[in-house]
Amino acid sequence: MSYYLEDAATEFQVQGLELDGTCATWEGALRFNGSVWKFHRFRGDKWEQVHKPDLRGYLRNAYRVLLTRARQGMVIFVPPGSSSDPTRKAAFYDSTFDYLRDLGIPAL
Hints:
108 residues; alpha+beta; 3-stranded antiparallel beta sheet; two-stranded parallel ribbon; 5 strands
């Protein structure tokens, strides 16, 4: 197993691959709000909520692809957010981080 970031890739580039170890960044597009998942896309300079079921399915599938590539180990990086950047508010990430931790995924 490598101890270095060797390649960065999108869900399209890793589809169908089995990788020894991966690191996936969980961005603000898919957010857990404490009870349900919320779907967003970034347009211009802000996040917009996604309402169309087919676009929600596409976003859900993109995360599924990224989260199912690792054979030996995976790190999920959830950014801490930033009070100085309205497009990266901590509220976009904190409940998702808590949800993943509550599932039993250890925080590093």
